[in-house]
Design a protein that fits this description.
This protein is mainly alpha-helical and 160 residues long. It has helices at residues 2-11, 27-51, 55-62, 66-73, 81-91, 95-98, 123-134, 137-151.
C-alpha cells in the first residue's frame, strides 16, 4: 500500500506559481494611481539628485534592487509603505513632499538639522523627547515653531 502511494506522489507535476491579480479598479482610480506613481517618481528623483546620490546608492540604502528603484523613479510602480518610509529617511524628505502635496525641499533647513552625537543620548534629550511625545496637535506645532525660531538665523538684524 505504501509503495502505491509513493508512486502516485512521484507522478504529480509541480504546480505552476500563480500570480495574484489585483482587483480591477475603476478607470478613474487607475488614472489617479498612475498619476501618483508619476508624481512620486519625479519627486524622488529630484530629492535624490538634491542629495547627490546615484540610483544604485539610494536603492542600496533603502534595501531594494537598483532595477526596482529605477521603475519606481520612472513612475512605473508605487512603493510599499515601509519602502516609502525608508525613502523618506534616506532622502530626508517627508512623505508629503514625495507624494506631491508639498514642493520637494519645502521643509526649512532648521527642521532638517541632526542632533549632534554628543547630545543624542543624554538624560536631557531623553526627557525632552518623552515630553514632546505627550504633546498633541496644536501644542506640537507651536513647540516646533518655537524651536525653529531658536535655531534659525534672523532675517533682519535688529539695530539697538
Amino acid at each position: 500500500m505504501k509503495l502505491h502511494l509513493k508512486a502516485r506522489v512521484a507522478k504529480r507535476r509541480p504546480r505552476a506559481k500563480t500570480h495574484r491579480k489585483r482587483p480591477l479598479l475603476p478607470e478613474d482610480a487607475q488614472r489617479r494611481e498612475q498619476r501618483l506613481a508619476s508624481t512620486l517618481g519625479m519627486a524622488v528623483r529630484e530629492a535624490r539628485m538634491r542629495a547627490g546620490l546615484t540610483q544604485a546608492e539610494l536603492a542600496e540604502s533603502i534595501g531594494t534592487a537598483t532595477e526596482v528603484y529605477g521603475r519606481l523613479e520612472r513612475g512605473k510602480m508605487l512603493p510599499s509603505v515601509p519602502t516609502l518610509f525608508r525613502l523618506c529617511v534616506a532622502l530626508r524628505s517627508g512623505p508629503h513632499e514625495l507624494m506631491g502635496f508639498a514642493p520637494v525641499g519645502s521643509v526649512p533647513e532648521a527642521a532638517r538639522l541632526e542632533v549632534p552625537p554628543e547630545l543624542a543620548d543624554t538624560p536631557e534629550m531623553r526627557r525632552l523627547l518623552r515630553l514632546l511625545g505627550r504633546l498633541q496637535g496644536l501644542q506640537l506645532r507651536l513647540t516646533l515653531r518655537l524651536v525653529m525660531a531658536f535655531v534659525t538665523k534672523p532675517k533682519h538684524a535688529r539695530l539697538d
